[in-house]
Amino acid sequence: MSIPRVFNSPVRLVSIALLTFTVTTVAHGEMYHYNNIILGERPMGMAGAYTAVADTPAGLYYNPAGIVYAHSPNLSASVNAFQLTSTIYENALGDNDWERQSSDLLPNFFGVSQPLGNLSLGFSYAVPDSVREDQIQSFTFAPGSAHEHIDYYTINIDHSNVINKIGPSVALSVNDQLSVGFTFYVHMRNSKTIQNHVVSVQHPELSNTSEIELTNDYQRIEEYGFEPVLGIMWSPLNSVSFGASIRQTTVINSNTIRQLTCQGTERGKQDIINQLQEYLDNDLITQEQFNQEIEWHEQYNCSFGFDGMQHTRPRESNERHQYPITTRLGAAWFPNDRLMLSGDLVLYDDVNSTWNAAVGGEYYLSPQWAVRGGWYTNNANSPNEIDYDGIAFSLVRFTRNSSVSAGFNFAFGEGKAQLYRGSEETVSTTSYSTTIFLGTSYSY
């Protein structure tokens, strides 16, 4: 479902009916960024710069060729992470800022690897994206503003979007310098969004009388597919390694269900008509566009009918989401036994192209303690979205056969971002994401 073309005009619509309906189709940030979560105990501390290292079970995800360098069986027992994100759209609703928050405690990664001579086998489970929103906000509008006829506006959002991947891996040591690897993931995505809007609008004719406009928007997405990952590792010198991997998710089955239920107001419908008429009178739209917008609202905007409760039948779609081809290129340098530095460049092609980069390192303070850190990006795949810069840090404690690490990832971005789908209009936006993680691994 698209936003009316009127939003591309230089004048912003001010009717509450449009305000409510367009907020229901706000795009979620996870759609426009591919590096929302860094996976695995060691990569999370190194900002994801892991393609040319990949010698722990986390390498099954980043570059499966790297697990041949794990000379003993290794189990990544658990990596648990708590993630908190916040995005503030300035003056999004009249003079009011709109803040969206997401928080989730999730099992980030689990993996196991087993060397068998020149061959290594592995199995892993990963959660590369997870969003959980559950919030309620209320807004009032100042006298004299475009929305002064609104007593209050309340929006409640319950939104979740989780991607899970699970599957086996195999890697082969071709010689002392070269290895190749392959992971085959089953891809599963489950997304659900429930949004409720309550608007108290002053009656256009009766003073001290208000009408209530209600909107409920339900949407559910389920998709299944697969993601092959092909990796290669080359170590021309003992102190230098290069790695690369390529992957693409293919959706083989997808089902989307959406239903709208709402009760409009006479003022809400009349505001839309009056606003469109004003655009027509000022030659901002043509008569044909005017008729198209009225037809669009009659068909899709159930609050356009104000005589009682309105609803649409659940609409199903089997349109399959397209994922980009992702290519990771990495290099690592091991100057001595205590220090390791690495860098990654990640390219996303074919669908909504963009790129990301990461630089990370690991330093052993002693045989029992090490620190990891790094810098990374989470760039948008749309010109109307903001880019993020992030930092990573973790402290690691080693025993003879195990390790425990704790750390954080923090990303921040600000600039102009698109608030409504289908609109070129942008608003000043500030966003941050904080992830606190605890991971353990065991060699047996």
Account of the 3D structure:
- The chain is mainly beta.
- The chain has one domain: Porin.
- It is 11% helix and 57% strand.
- It has five helices and 17 strands.
- Strand 12 (339-349) and strand 13 (354-364) form a beta hairpin.
- Helix 4 (266-281) packs antiparallel against helix 5.
- The radius of gyration is 26 Å and the shape is elongated.
- Mean pLDDT is 85; it is low at 1-29.
Which structural traits does this protein have?
mainly beta, Porin, transmembrane, long-chain fatty acid transporting porin activity, Long-chain fatty acid transport protein, OMPP1/FadL/TodX, transmembrane beta strand
Describe the SSE topology.
Elements: H1 16-23, H2 41-45, H3 59-62, E1 74-93, E2 96-116, E3 119-139, E4 150-173, E5 178-202, E6 210-237, E7 240-247, E8 250-263, H4 266-281, H5 287-300, E9 309-311, E10 315-317, E11 325-333, E12 339-349, E13 354-364, E14 369-378, E15 388-398, E16 402-418, E17 426-443
Antiparallel strand pairs: 1-2, 1-17, 2-3, 3-4, 4-5, 5-6, 6-7, 6-8, 7-11, 8-9, 8-10, 11-12, 12-13, 13-14, 14-15, 15-16, 16-17
Helix pairs in contact: 4-5
Biggest sheet strand line-up:
1-2-3-4-5-6-7-11-12-13-14-15-16-17
Radius of gyration: 26 Å
**Contiguous runs where pLDDT drops below 50 for at least 5 residues:** 1-29
Query: Which structural class should the secondary elements be placed in?
Result: mainly beta
> How many strands appear in the DSSP assignment?
17
What's the structural domain tally? 1
Assembly state of the chains shown? single chain
Q: Kindly state the mean pLDDT as a whole number?
A: 85
CATH class: Mainly Beta
Strand content: over 45%
CATH homologous superfamily? Answer: Outer membrane protein transport protein (OMPP1/FadL/TodX)
CATH topology name: Porin
Number of helices: 5
